[in-house]
Amino acid sequence: MDELKPTRIINSDHHSVIEFTRSYTRSTNSDCANAVSLYYAVRDRFRYDPYTIDLTVEGLRASRVLEINRGWCVSKAILLAACCRVSSIPARLGFADVRNHLSTARMRERMGTDLFIWHAYTSILIDGTWRKATPAFNVELCDKFRLRPLEFDGSADSIYHPFDLDGRKHMEYVKYRGEFSDVPLAAITDDMTRLHPGFSGTTVNGDFEREVSEETASF
User: What is the pLDDT of residues 116-158, one digit of tens each?
Assistant: First the structure.
């Protein structure tokens, strides 16, 4: 099954990914329990930082998130998929275009739109059913944005809420692009270059956490 194999980007055979996975799983636990434990580890151990977008094989690897201690939706979904594969839990990457109503002003300026294409989640096979899990936003970021953190129990999909805690629009799923056993890097790079010219495909200088703190100070 391809959803269990390491790839150049979903590098579940890397020693750091194996060590990280083993620190959050137990051999006697069920696949569901292990997947849930790994989800929360990836969600909250690594800050969400969209300025870490690096559309190269090296920049997207699961081991890269462990190295720099942060990531964006695609790289964090890749890490979760890799960790699941270490635990012999089939996992693949899912993608959707979303309209994000609660990004920062600088982020929207760089993106040129509030439509974020190729947003990623991890699809995990649990008890015979593929479940969507979205580990992108760490709990501290959710607190600042007044969002309900996405929970995952392995029995239902975990995708973004349409509204925040104050009833403002948060996330709208515009189009699902499908699920893949490996990263469709060429398609992502082509579309990002064409639709988000503010991003060159490599890391953009910026402090997303500081921008969020400044813009949410009056919430």
Answer: 899 999 999 999 999 999 999 999 888 888 888 999 999 999 9
Strands 171-180 and 91-100: antiparallel
Which two tokens mark 91?
């996992």
d(CA 72, CA 53): 7
Beta bridge partners of 133: 122, 158
User: What would the mean pLDDT of 195-219 be, rounded to a whole number?
Assistant: 65
Return the biggest CA–CA distance within the chain. Answer: 50
What is the rounded CA–CA span in Å between residue 215 and residue 42?
A: 26
Nearest Cα to Cα of residue 101 among 168, 195, 161: 168
Bin 69: left if φ > 0, else alpha if -120 < ψ < 50, else beta.
left
Q: Are strands 115-126 and 91-100 parallel, antiparallel or unpaired?
A: antiparallel
Does the structure show a pLDDT above 90 at 211? no
Residues 218, 119, 156, 37, CA torsion sign: negative
pLDDT tens, position by position, 76-111? 999 999 999 999 999 999 999 998 756 777 777 777
Report whether pLDDT(2) > 80.
Answer: yes
The residue type at 133: A
- Decide: helix, strand or coil at residue 101: coil
